[in-house]
């Protein structure tokens, strides 16, 4: 009887240990090695959700999910007013596709695609590089002029300014 309980107890313990280990591996892998997730733009002006594109599962896209100032002076949602297509100027910026068709370039750590800037209505060639699990380097270029921003995972920004911060 005692031997039977020991085997059952040991197998239960092993099952729980494997379950915990598996969860840790999945969580760490998804967070540390993926660009997917919610990112705060430089200055925390907006949050962008990066995930696999709906039409091309081997590529990443990014949608604006939050704005620091989501409404204008009249209390209306901020619109894509600078879009070169007059038919798109009334669409809200929240929900707008900002990052488009990013795929791995020559280096597995660098992704190439396009970024849309709703402030001027232009689309630029861009690259994404994960500096560490919580810091994303976003570089947009037009001809030979490039601009680089540092985006942070929303979770890391929230932790940094959480209730325990001074």
List the total number of helices: 2
Structural class: alpha+beta
Looking at the structure, the CATH topology of the largest domain is Lipocalin
Main sheet record: 8 strands, antiparallel, barrel
Task: Give a written overview of the molecule.
An 8-stranded antiparallel beta barrel has the order 1-2-3-4-5-6-7-8. 23% of the residues lie in helices and 38% in strands. The protein has 2 domains: 1-33; 36-160, Beta Barrel (Lipocalin). With 166 residues, it is an alpha+beta fold. The protein is built from 2 helices and 8 strands; from the N terminus they run αββββββββα.
List keywords for this structure.
disordered N terminus, 2 helices, Lipocalin, alpha+beta, eight-stranded antiparallel beta barrel, 2 domains
Map the helices and strands.
Elements: H1 2-32, E1 37-40, E2 46-52, E3 60-67, E4 97-104, E5 110-117, E6 122-132, E7 135-142, E8 145-153, H2 154-160
Antiparallel strand pairs: 1-2, 1-8, 2-3, 3-4, 4-5, 5-6, 6-7, 7-8
């Amino acid at each position: 009887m005692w031997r039977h309980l020991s085997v059952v107890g040991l197998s239960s313990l092993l099952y729980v240990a494997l379950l915990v280990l598996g969860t840790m591996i999945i969580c760490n892998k998804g967070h540390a090695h993926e660009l997917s997730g919610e990112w705060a733009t430089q200055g925390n002006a907006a949050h962008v959700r990066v995930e696999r594109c709906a039409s091309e599962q081997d590529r990443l896209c990014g949608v604006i999910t939050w704005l620091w100032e989501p409404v204008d002076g009249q209390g209306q949602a901020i619109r894509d007013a600078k879009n070169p297509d007059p038919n798109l100027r009334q669409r809200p910026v929240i929900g707008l596709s900002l990052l488009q068709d990013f795929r791995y370039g020559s280096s597995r750590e660098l992704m190439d695609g396009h970024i849309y800037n709703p402030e001027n209505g232009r689309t630029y060639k861009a690259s994404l590089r994960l500096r560490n699990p919580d810091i994303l380097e976003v570089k947009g270029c037009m001809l030979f002029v490039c601009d680089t921003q540092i985006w942070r995972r929303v979770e890391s920004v929230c932790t940094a300014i959480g209730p325990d911060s001074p």
